[in-house]
Design a protein that fits this description.
The complex is a heterodimer of chains A (290) and B (313). Chain A has 290 residues and is an alpha/beta fold. Chain A is built from seven helices and 13 strands. Mean pLDDT of chain B is 93; it is low at 1-8 and 10-18. Chain B is α+β, with helices and mostly antiparallel strands. In chain B, helix 6 (198-212) packs antiparallel against helix 7 (241-262) and helix 7 (241-262) packs across helix 10. The longest helix of chain B is centred in the C-terminal third of the chain and has 22 residues, at 241-262. Classes of the chains: A alpha/beta (290), B alpha+beta (313).
């Protein structure tokens, strides 16, 4: 597993070295994977058109459009923002025509209204908890389980492929330590309940595979859906370690030195200083409740 | 005069508390600020209360250990009951312990999102607000008032600033500190910090202060200073300039990180680049007190700002 660590592609910097893959990866049953400079999004091709997720950026979306055209002449009926982050959602106009709906969980629209981005059209269609986007013989289902990574993250299931797409929180092939040690935009009070709900959803819908939003060189895009459980166990373990120290009244700044991190060493991307910074953040969950 | 940052200050809180929680500094202190306004401090945490002819308006009860001494401090001034408790925000380290005041009939007031937060992540020692508001609310009692204002997310998503009248003193918690806003953040990961609205929030507070003629703040934490005799507690009050200073802190930091990332520097490398930049040192680092912050902590804060720069949040 340690070998894989060196293969993981960070979101910025190194990922620029990755080639743009205008040839999408066929995941089966109309679902395709578009990859661009270390990031990736899925799109679904059905009888009635194409549903594309996260356009990534204005320049990426031009390649995204080419990737879609390489498999179908059908137009994009929906652009789905699975979150509201500027490294994922700009560029949708490149994929859209005048009839295209921009779809997101309703909090994404609130976020984008509060902090507009010039290349990010506001969602024209929002949902609260669950919605189904119909592409004819295929559907893209969106689920919202509360604050998790950001305040509007959608969990996506493509059918009939029955593959789940989750931005940021799950990265095949294995459970890993998040890239950002400050855990910016992680809503820790709901992170474990979020994963539990995703696990329950996967079981209820018979989902067997999951795809993430980051390209990992040398690894396939799909992992068994048990990866969701593995990642939840990571969070559970990390939070419990900090909680134990908090209850011992270990000062926040001393927790990285005093905490027993051995249970975390198995995870991809483990680094003592990196995880120590996360522990500073997690301390606040127990001190302030968030 | 050197000012120790909240960073060091709060690390001291984790030491066993006694009558002097730091040598030479009392655990509990009450300051009469005039016009019925008092500042109460328990360790490094501070609140205000207003004594009126019809009862008392209290603010953040702090926690179960602090609320008893708070009630005693109020009793030292008046026999009248606490009628209202105003929450500055929803974080447990300021909002716990209110049951003692609830039991004597106090009504709890907070911005609407605080109720949502407190309901979502329940703490057994946090009393839920009875009265919620969206943008502003005035608690009026006798000839006094406590005016509460919300300007969007900042340190959390329901933080309010308060103006006690007629004292015309502003109570600010965690978004800046008296006597100066040029202080390092206690938690450089900015747990629940809403960076995208921080500058706008502080600017709105500056405008409010200007409109209301406020010249003085009381901050939610003790600041320490040093002189030849050693460490001492800074006064409970400071100039309103601390709000502008903190706004400038963020503006300069955001601009520096954005400029560095625009050069192609990755999120993980921005801190190294800035910490080795003479311009960043002159424009930002040199404005911080020489004691009370660590390079490693600043690296974390810069990394947090880099994510904000990339994602918008």
């Amino acid at each position: 597993m340690k070998i894989l660590r060196s293969l993981l592609i960070p979101l910025a910097g190194l990922c620029l070295a990755l080639p743009v893959n205008a040839e999408p990866t066929d995941l089966g049953d109309g679902l395709y994977l578009f990859q661009h400079e270390g990031q990736q999004s899925v799109f679904l091709v059905g009888d009635d058109g194409v549903i594309a997720t996260d356009p990534l950026s204005k320049s990426a979306a031009k390649d995204y459009k080419a990737a879609i055209k390489s498999v179908t002449r059908k137009s994009v009926t929906h652009v789905v923002y699975t979150n509201s982050f500027f490294d994922r959602v700009p560029g949708g106009k490149e994929l859209a025509n005048r009839k295209t709906e921009f779809v997101a969980q309703e909090n994404c629209k609130t976020n984008l209204e509060a902090t507009p981005h010039p290349d990010t059209p506001l969602p024209t269609q929002t949902y609260s908890d669950h919605t189904v986007l119909d592409a004819g013989d295929a559907t893209l289902e969106l689920y919202y389980f509360g604050q998790s990574y950001g305040t509007c993250l959608s969990v996506v299931i493509a059918k009939p492929a029955n593959i789940m797409f989750i931005h940021g929180l799950v990265t095949p092939p294995v459970a890993k330590v998040p890239d950002d040690p400050t855990l910016a935009n992680y809503y820790l009070h709901n992170i474990v309940p979020f994963f539990v709900q995703v696990e329950e959803l996967a079981a209820a819908e018979g989902v067997e595979q999951v795809v993430g939003s980051v390209t990992v060189e040398g690894a396939g895009p799909l992992a068994p859906v048990s990866l969701v459980t593995d990642q939840r166990v990571f969070w559970d373990t990390l939070l419990r370690i900090v909680e134990v120290e908090y209850k011992k009244r270990t000062p926040a700044q001393a927790i990285p030195r005093k905490a027993d991190m051995s249970a975390l060493e198995q995870y991809e991307g483990f680094d003592q200083e990196h995880v120590g910074t996360m522990m500073r953040r997690i301390y606040s969950l127990y001190r302030i409740g968030r | 005069m050197r000012i120790l940052s909240t960073l060091l200050l709060l690390s001291l809180l984790s030491l066993p508390v006694n009558a002097q929680f730091i040598p030479g500094i009392e655990l509990i202190q009450t300051d009469d600020l005039g016009n019925g306004l008092y500042a109460f401090r328990y360790g490094p945490y501070r609140n205000i209360f207003i004594v009126t002819e019809d009862g008392v308006i209290a603010t953040d009860p702090l926690d179960v250990k602090a609320v008893g001494p708070l009630r005693e401090a109020i009793s030292d001034v008046t026999d009248l009951p606490v009628k209202y408790v105003a929450y500055s925000h929803s974080h447990w380290d300021h909002a716990s312990g209110g049951q003692l005041l609830k039991d004597e009939g106090a009504q709890f007031v907070a911005q609407r999102e605080c109720l949502r937060n407190m309901s979502e992540t329940r703490h057994p020692d946090v009393v839920l607000p009875d009265i919620v508001f969206d943008d502003s609310y005035s608690i009026e009692l006798g000839q006094h008032s406590l005016d509460m204002y919300f300007f969007g997310p900042s340190h959390d998503d329901c933080m309010t600033v308060m103006i006690a009248k007629p004292a015309n003193v502003m109570f600010v918690v965690d978004i800046t500190s008296a006597p100066t806003g040029w202080e390092m953040e206690y938690n450089p990961t900015m747990a629940e910090g809403y960076l995208y609205n921080m500058v706008q929030y502080l600017r709105a507070v500056e405008e409010l202060a200007e409109r209301e003629g406020v010249e003085t703040i009381v901050s939610g934490h003790l600041a320490l200073g040093f002189n030849k005799k050693g460490m001492f507690a800074q006064p409970a009050t400071g100039p309103i300039d601390a709000v502008r200073e903190k706004r400038e802190f963020w503006e300069i930091l955001f601009a520096a990180v954005a400029e560095e990332m625009a050069k192609g520097t990755s999120k993980d490398d921005v801190a190294d680049a800035l910490m080795n930049s003479p311009e960043f040192k002159a424009e930002f680092l040199d404005k911080l007190p020489p004691i009370g912050w660590k390079k490693s902590e600043m690296n974390i804060l810069i990394r947090r700002v880099a994510t904000y720069t990339e994602t918008g949040r």
